[in-house]
Amino acid sequence: MKLVSRAQWGARPWREPNGSIPYAGPRKGTKLHYLGTAYTFGPHNSCPVYVRKLQASHMDVEGWSDIGYSFVVCEHGYVFEGRGLVRRNSANGNVSLNEAHYAVAALLGASGSTHPTDVQLRGLRDAIDYCRADGPAGTEIKGHRDGYPTLCPGDVLYAWVRAGAPGPTPP
Length: 171
Ligand SMILES: [Zn+2]
Ligand SMILES: [Zn+2]
Fold this sequence. Notes:
Peptidoglycan recognition protein family domain-containing protein; binds zinc ion; Amidase/PGRP_sf; two-stranded parallel ribbon; 8 strands; 29% helix; Lysozyme-like; six-stranded mixed β-sheet; globular; alpha/beta
């Protein structure tokens, strides 16, 4: 897995004390997200910049204590560490939903670039497997829209979720 640590993408420190709240119990699995805004794939050096923007938006506009997602996967297949495996995410809709599943987001648009790349699917699958193995998390793979009224993670990614999040066909 091509993991990008918080230090590597230049994350801001999370706010205390809320940013440090650990999960109270085991996770049932992982929920997938997309950006829900316009997004256009670009060169990988723009990805850390975008993840920093996302964190700033979550902290300064939403008022959250950190980037909301557990992990963020760019179109080049890199897995950016958000809240990670231990700290409870704030992306699934409410505290009980956040407790139940990790939140893994794809840098994928509601318009513009709306179809994940093969390496992005590989990275999403890597993140799901990492959450299961090291979280640990159960085997559920769901979308943000499961249990919460939202279009997220978009119809294209949701179809992949419904198919069990298969990795891309090996070469
Ligand atoms: Zn979402
Ligand atoms: Zn990238």
